[in-house]
Amino acid sequence: MEFAIYRVRECTRVTLAFEVDRGFWKIYGEEVRKVQTFSSFGQAFRRVDGGVPPPLAGEGEEVIRGWERLAHSLHLRLEGRALTWDELRSGEWDDSPDEERLRQGIQWLILTGRATLLPGVEATGAALRRRCNRCGAGADRIRTGPCARCGGGCAWCDRCVILGRNRACMPLVLVEPLGTRTGEPKVEMRLPALSLAQQDAVEKCLNWLEEEREMLLVWAVTGSGKTEMMFPAIRKVLEQKGRVVWISPRREVVTEVARRMRRAFPGTEVAEVHGETGEIRENRPLTVATVQQSLRYYRRFRLAVVDEADAFPLREDSRWFSGIRRTLIDGGQQVYLTATPPSSWKRRVRRGKVDSVTVPVRFHGHPLPVPKRYRVGGLWRKLKRGASVPRLESFLEGVSAEKGQAFLFVPRISDTNLVLDWVGLRMPGLKPVVGVATGKHEQRRDTIRAFMEGGLRILVTTTILERGVTVPRCHVLVVGADHPVFDRAALIQIAGRVGRDPAWPRGEVWFLSMVSTEAQTGAIREIRSLNRYAEKRGYLSAKRNATES
């Protein structure tokens, strides 16, 4: 694939299809002169020195009208997308033109201001200035090496490689949205009964939306029903003929949220976009996507709701948020949902730089279970030797007596077998009902399903299950809670596995460790603070009703 540069009006421009540019400028009586061709788009782009074409005027010749029809057809399919050239020509789009026609149509969109062309990776100048134009990664994530496409040394991004390799030698095409969509003014919504805390949060979200502020932080405890709380705001945007994207870090959550969206908005089409779906090509008003897949949208949405905004990969690299912002139209708004906002976000709220809504109680009105700390000297040595650990034995006996289920969280994958062997030695009667689930266990999905269905009573796991899992009659014990992997946010999320079921809102949360840590103290302090705030606001309806009776 070659890319030409040419001179017109004392400016140098790059093109996908030189004959299209020559026809475009002929309308204005301008002669163009091809200067050079390159096998790398990045090298050609480096020679561009500016120049903005005037708007298209008049119909021109028949060939020009043909290019316009082709460009219009492509615009209808691709509007609001940010796609690499490989994605454009992959054949996933219905009735895709051949590559020559695709180049002509895209180039006409560029000349008429409906698309922008950038190198996939900016690799000019000093190495420290390299960046990915798709995901925003900096020089630390840009790799270089021989490239079979351009035949030379080339740069590519390893952060968004899960979407397909993004290279400096190939273009990234940003297609402008068509604008306000057409649709019915009323959107049907089926919303479950909301608690007082949820109703207050809905009202504040709608007010924030009306004020057209840029960002809203919704700090909602685990199990508070934050997804349903956002439905009225989503409906309002849809009724204003705007489009909404719901972004989640995990594929499983995308599937679950899309299912709930279809049930809540039965008359609205919902696109579910993750690595195993092809719905990136669907022009639907409501989209649920993973963080990575959201990079393929461009100025498309009026509202972006980022679920679990402090979770991986957003927690490890805040530059993902720049890609999320690029999905929004000018004046678009963002909502960040989280049960464990970082301290930096809380400071921004206190300083008045970010609007916020706090939901300190679950939808069933019961207070959050407060963890208990127990110090066990020589904990890991005792586990390795198979020695007695009375606190752990007492916890497991209590779970068995109540016919409940329990998570045993450990800090490292290697610790799962250590705990499993200890249970088999000290409490052999429990061994048949104990399972292990980590990121490296091939059968983890089957194991988790067996645990969710009650076939297993105890699940030994790592922090991969700190979020998004609901089990009735659940208890939690953290083995080695003083390990650095169990920071404040992780411990709060882990504690949030307990008490989610309104039919059984109680449960035990224990931290076992050799020393107390600030993370444990901070987690307990925050949970207690949220319970006090909920009681002060009168949100603990279950507790109040129990007292009154």
Explained architecture:
By secondary structure, the protein is α/β, with parallel strands linked by helices. It folds into 3 domains: 3-175, no CATH class; 196-359, Rossmann fold (3-Layer(aba) Sandwich); 372-548, P-loop containing nucleotide triphosphate hydrolases (Rossmann fold), CATH 3.40.50. It has 19 helices and 23 strands. The strands form 6 sheets. A 7-stranded parallel beta sheet has the order 13-14-12-15-16-11-17. The protein has a 6-stranded parallel beta sheet with strand order 18-23-22-19-21-20, sandwiched between helices. Helix 17 links the parallel strand 22 (474-479) and strand 23 (509-513). Helix 1 packs parallel to helix 5, helix 3 crosses helix 5 (99-111) and helix 17 packs across helix 18 (518-536). It is elongated, with a radius of gyration of 28 Å. The termini are far apart. The model is unreliable at 54-59 and 543-549 (pLDDT under 50).
Topology:
Layout: E1 3-8, E2 11-15, H1 18-26, E3 33-38, H2 41-45, H3 62-78, E4 82-84, H4 85-88, H5 99-111, E5 115-119, E6 121-122, E7 131-132, E8 142-146, E9 153-157, E10 171-175, H6 196-211, E11 215-220, H7 226-229, H8 231-239, E12 244-248, H9 251-264, E13 270-273, E14 286-290, H10 291-294, E15 301-306, H11 320-326, E16 328-338, H12 343-350, E17 355-359, E18 372-375, H13 379-385, H14 390-401, E19 405-409, H15 414-426, E20 434-437, H16 444-452, E21 458-461, E22 474-479, H17 488-495, E23 509-513, H18 518-536, H19 541-548
Parallel strand pairs: 11-16, 11-17, 12-14, 12-15, 13-14, 15-16, 18-23, 19-21, 19-22, 20-21, 22-23
Antiparallel strand pairs: 1-2, 1-3, 4-10, 5-10, 6-7, 8-9
Helix pairs in contact: 1-5, 3-5, 6-8, 17-18
